């Protein structure tokens, strides 16, 4: 008589513990997002092509320190742009503004000609997929963690996304395949594996604009190649915006923006920038020297 209720209590306890950890994750996420309030007359953003333009963008986190100054560039729909520069140059800040975690202090950011500050945050974020350096995994199965990209996705679509994200070999090695529990209380995934989960989520979401924050921690070269080839496949036909730390990964970008102390120092293709013999060339040569020494 006592076994059933105790068993049930154990189940309830585990459920609550699981939800609490998910709520903690949610709070960590929310804590990173300062409140930007939509205007009362904010409209839905309508994205047809996915062209991005930054027009005289200036930004300060705090009044006394300007982080971005006079940033101007256009990313044509369907092209791949990479942002490079030393640590603290302002690369991640550009992405935070594009995702409307903050609004510019000066100038504006347009997607398909519409100023995003005048549109709802929700509608802006719906059209952008982000593959961050550190992906948050919820305490759930691997499948459910991927389904998070689009809750109504079918199992077949999830399987397809797993293949495109080059996660299939990894999944076949798991004890319960895609039904294995991952996250804080389950299997811990490596940085590269977590990034591939984020890529699979983005594949399900299929947003017109994709942002990829390349991991700084050195992945082994096999993982790096798998991630890069997954990205190339999913980025086809989409506008992609990549924060790159290793220049060797972005030599094929349509445009490279070189940031220096919150300003654009140079922009162009890899070969155009090398001809300028400026900051990009210095960064390139420094990285070539490091890889020779490895
Ligand atoms: P990294 O390559 O190291 O990631 P980054 O080029 O992406 O650097 P950002 O993260 O954009 O640089 O930071 C640009 C500047 O803004 C830095 O000086 C940083 O200290 C400052 N900064 C970033 N986030 C905040 C914040 N939330 N509040 C105040 N200052 C911030």
From TrEMBL:
Domain of life: Bacteria
Domain ABC transporter: 52-286
Record's subcellular location: Cell membrane
Protein name: ABC transporter, ATP-binding protein
Whole-protein coverage range: 304 to 597 of 597
